[in-house]
Every structure is written in structure tokens, then in C-alpha cells.
Design a protein that fits this description.
- Two copies of one chain form a homodimer.
- Chain A is an alpha+beta fold.
- The first copy, chain A, folds into two domains: 142 residues, PurM-like, N-terminal domain (60s Ribosomal Protein L30, Chain: A), CATH 3.30.1330.10; 178 residues, PurM-like C-terminal domain (Phosphoribosyl-aminoimidazole Synthetase, Chain A, domain 2, Alpha-Beta Complex), CATH 3.90.650.10.
- Chain A is built from ten helices and 13 strands.
- In chain A, the strands form two sheets. Chain A has a seven-stranded mixed beta sheet.
- In chain A, a hairpin with an 8-residue loop joins strand 12 and strand 13.
- The radius of gyration of chain A is 20 Å and the shape is globular.
- The mean pLDDT of chain A is 91.
- Chains A and B meet through helix 1, strand 3, strand 4, helix 3 and strand 5 of A and helix 1, strand 3, strand 4, helix 3 and strand 5 of B.
Amino acid sequence: MKERDLIQHIKELTTQKADGLVQGIGDDCAVVTKDQENVWLLTMDTLVESVHFDCSWHPPYLVGRKAVSVNVSDIAAMGGKPVFVLLSLGLPKNFDPEWVSTFNKGINEACSQYGCLLIGGDTVCSPEKVSLTLTLIGESPQDQVVYRHGACPGDNIWVSGALGYAAAGLDYFRTGKGHGAPCLYETSSQYPSEIAPCITAHLDPEARTGLGKALAQAGCIHAMMDLSDGLATDLAHLCQQSEVGARIAADKLPGSTGLAAAASLLGEKRRDWMLTGGEDYELLFTASPQDNEKIIEIAARQSIRVNPVGIITEPSQGVVLQECGPDADREQSITFQGFDHFS
Amino acid sequence: MKERDLIQHIKELTTQKADGLVQGIGDDCAVVTKDQENVWLLTMDTLVESVHFDCSWHPPYLVGRKAVSVNVSDIAAMGGKPVFVLLSLGLPKNFDPEWVSTFNKGINEACSQYGCLLIGGDTVCSPEKVSLTLTLIGESPQDQVVYRHGACPGDNIWVSGALGYAAAGLDYFRTGKGHGAPCLYETSSQYPSEIAPCITAHLDPEARTGLGKALAQAGCIHAMMDLSDGLATDLAHLCQQSEVGARIAADKLPGSTGLAAAASLLGEKRRDWMLTGGEDYELLFTASPQDNEKIIEIAARQSIRVNPVGIITEPSQGVVLQECGPDADREQSITFQGFDHFS
């Protein structure tokens, strides 16, 4: 069973209408009414040792930071401001108090950075592996929330930052090149410098809260989500929710040049890293072409690059990648080709 | 490291003051401002296969129900009404779709029963065991919330229902007597009838939402929490938060007669089941003796028995159990002698 079939199954069992519920299952966050003008955004993400992080190369301080960042990223993707955090921490019986203490520092410092506060949770014994679930509660004026639905044929598709860095960073450790690397708490400066941005993207991603909020406030974004499972899968989700298709231009994917060093070290896998690698935690959003300049300006004010990578099409066209140069006629479907937990 | 030391460590790292935060770490739920009159109650509980439930005797439908009930119990313990649920479901790669489907039905039917709605969450791959984390969001008028702090010397200590049933039910399966028992989805009618209430208490506990709400509305409850780790540990938490001591009368613990059959089948462990067994999901609360009649009346309207089990004392006296009959002079400390995940 695919992850999306499982989520669909859960969704079908559940009534999706209730007093105070604005958006149920199917977006980055659930949205519920707070007061007359504002809503709460609610999201939950679990990280499991040996599935989502590997203690042999992921320092506990950065595991803590990452657990917060990946949840905050869901809040950012709807234009919200993170406010409160709940943490359920599953630890093996013989856990290392030093690991936990450093992990907790990571959680708390990331909370400070994003302006949110740990207010509760649970601690349980876990059979062997560390397991952490965070619930993030964000806030937004109701009329500024940006959903996955809302993309229109003709919209430009935008991506913030660069793609594929985190996947290349993970590859660096998985292939064994990064084994025996020092356990760093603060920086990746001791890794080969040409690969350092990839290491940082994997170990310590940053949620795009400032950009997400600024885009939402501008009022011109039709649909938005964060990139966690890779562009191919996440764009397919956005298209499904918006009932549209999409065409991505291969030569517009941002990050290819920056990944050259990683490719020469680890093999030419740039296309895979950028399309299907996952864990980018960048923002994927669509807007009318007439708002191009406005969007570039907003992003510049946040010192973040944004790039148009394709256009929204009619639903019948699916989600496709268009090659460039002499192969420009060639299109291939990339629908849901990214990361799936159960594949 | 004890579980409470771990929680204390996390609490110390965290600022406990912020706009909109009424109560942070240290109670059954975190409490945050919703609107001018109302607050949200937020709680999170994780159940891990082979730690909190055993698939060899716990039918998936009842695992789903229990996951909801134990979280709702935290909302009930503060006098709130459960409203929204987030579920993070960790499944091994080769999970059984039938198990998951039946589990989901249990989640949804328990949500209907308690009047709350599943609105989001996460699905992840877990290395071997099923792991589930729920976040429950409840609601209450701010002036009706009942906390763990607030108990006063001289208060009567009350317990709803009976103690020790769930622990005896668990013992029945753990000792092997219940192995090979049919996997029941709805009832425990196929178990030996004298032990059936214990089986139900373990497999399918019920949160005391009606009673919790009614007590909170009455305005006479000084402190309240739910019993999840056993009376000895939970009362110690309540006393710590209220800065008081407590004396429990051994002959007042409710449930002893009902546990006689279990004791003759499994050995005389009634004292342990009732004091330290855990998972009762009954309400523990304190109130002035002048409100005794009011409390009995409220409980009777909910068709639930409540029993006074002791009194709140000065903080220097600790949490003690007083024997009855010829041993009436004998007191023993029972502070934090209940279930601890990491002991």
C-alpha cells in the first residue's frame, strides 16, 4: 500500500465537516477557527531513528533542531507563524542522558529561533530506537492562509532556494563517504567545503517561515506547500488538490550547478536528488505570471532566491517534466515519483 | 533516569511564559487561550507496540479505541470537552492493511463516541513495531479548567470507579492465562465472566468525560488529574504540584471486592494492582469535605461511583498509605511507587 492510499483511506473514514474546522486532512496543516479573525494551523511529524535520522552521523543537537524545523516548515507552507510545540519523546530503556540533554537543547534553540514554545507532550519507552513526534501549532489571520488547492492553469510554478541538496547530503553519509566524520554540533565546516551546503541541508534544514508569511500577506499566491517528499511527489499532491496538471522545465530546476561537486564525488544523480530526493523543506507555490515581479521582490526582501520552474496546465495533462535543448519535445510523467514511506 | 526527572529536565530548559499560554509543561494538558472566554487544552500520548499494547491479544479495533480514550482522559481530567484529534501512525514496511483498516475504524468510532474529529496527522515507516501518537485538542471555558495544583490540606481525596482492574486484566494476558484467547472486536464476553471487567478495563478503557466536565462545572473541585500511572505515582504528582501531602486509607481503595476473582486466578496482588498498576483512567480529585454530598450527587447523575480514599495533609507528611484494623497505626510512604517508563 502506498502512503497516499493509506492517507486517503483514513480520510474516507473521517467526517470532514465540523464546527470550527476550516481544513481537515489533506493539506500541510489542519486549520481550525481560533477567534473571529484568526485560525490555528495544526501539524504533526514523526522522526524515527534509522528511518528519518541516523545517530551514527546525525548529532543529537541537530536531530532536535531538525524535528522542529520540519514541523515549522508545514506552518510556513500555509503562511502561518509557529506558536506552540508539543513533543512526544520515545526513548529506549537504556537511553544516554547526554544524548537526550543535547537533543533537548536543539529542540529549545530551534523553538527560540522560530519564535515558538515547547508547552507539553509525553515521554515513553520505545523498544529499541529513538522516536520523536512533534505537534506544531501555528497562527494566521484566516484570510491569509494559503492552501494546496487554488492553483490555476496558466500559473507559474515557483520553488524557493535550491533543490536536491539534502538528498545529496544524505547520499554522502549513506554511501559511507561521510562515515567517521566528526560529530558536529554547530557547523558543517569540517566536511569537504564543496559538499558542506549539502551536509547542512540534510542535518539542519531551515524552515522558510519569513518567506511563507510574506507571500501569504501579499495575497497573490494561489497554492502553496512545502517540499518534503521531493518535487515530483509534492507537485502531484498540489495538482491533485487543485485539480490541475503541471509541466516542469528540466533546465529550470534550481540547484544543478551547486550540486556539481556532490555529483563528481557521489556520481551523476542530480536529476534524482532534485526531483525525487525529498527533504528540501523549500516552498513550492503558484501564482499568476502578472505577479512575477512582486514575488521576486518579496523573496529578495527575505534574501531568498525564488525560481519559476514550470507552469500549471489543464488536469488532463498530468505532472510532466519537459527536457530542454535538442530533447525539448520530450515530456515524461513524473507524477508521484518521489519519496514514499511504504514503497 | 526516572521519567519524572526527564520531564523536569525538559521543563527546566523551557521558558514557561508566553502570550496566550495559560499552563505549560506539568499538568494533564497544556492550556492556551482560544478567545476571550475559552481555552484550548492540548495533550499528546504515544502508544508503542510491545510496550503499551501487545498485538497477540489486543485486537486492532480496540488498540484504535484505546489510543483515543487515553488521550481524551487527559482532557476529561481538566474538565474539558474533546474537539479535534491528530494521529501520527508509524507502521512497519510490511504492515497488514487489514490490521490498519480495523485500527482506523476503532479510532473513528471512539472519536464519534467522545464527540471529537480526526483532522490530520502523519504516516511514517517505523522499523519493526507499530507506534501511534495522538494529539488531542479539547476546549473549556477558562474559568472552569481544573488543574493538578490547588489541593488544600483537609481536602478529601476522591477516586471515580474502581482501581486495579486494568492492571489485573494485563496480568491475565501477561501470565499466559489469556493467550490463545479469541481476538474479540466488541466485547470480552468470551473471557471467564468473573474476569471480564478486568479484560475490558485493559483492552478498552473509557475516559470519564461526562464526570470530568460535570465536576469542573460545579466549581468545587480544587485539583484533578487522571489515573494513568497508578494512584501512588499520580497522587504524588498532584501533591507535588499542589505542594501538599496525602494520606490514603488502605481499606478505602475502591475495587478490592471486584478483584477477588482475579486474585484467586492470578495470585493475591490486589494491593499492587490498585496502588501501582496503572492505566485506570479514572479521575483523581480533591475537594473540601463540605462538598461531599454535592460530589456524590454529580457522580450519581453520571451513573458513576466515586469514593473518598483519603485526605490531603501538610506537605511535610509526604504521600502515605495508612493500614486499617489492628495495623491502623502503620503508615508507609507510597510516593512515586507506580509505573515509570524507564525503571
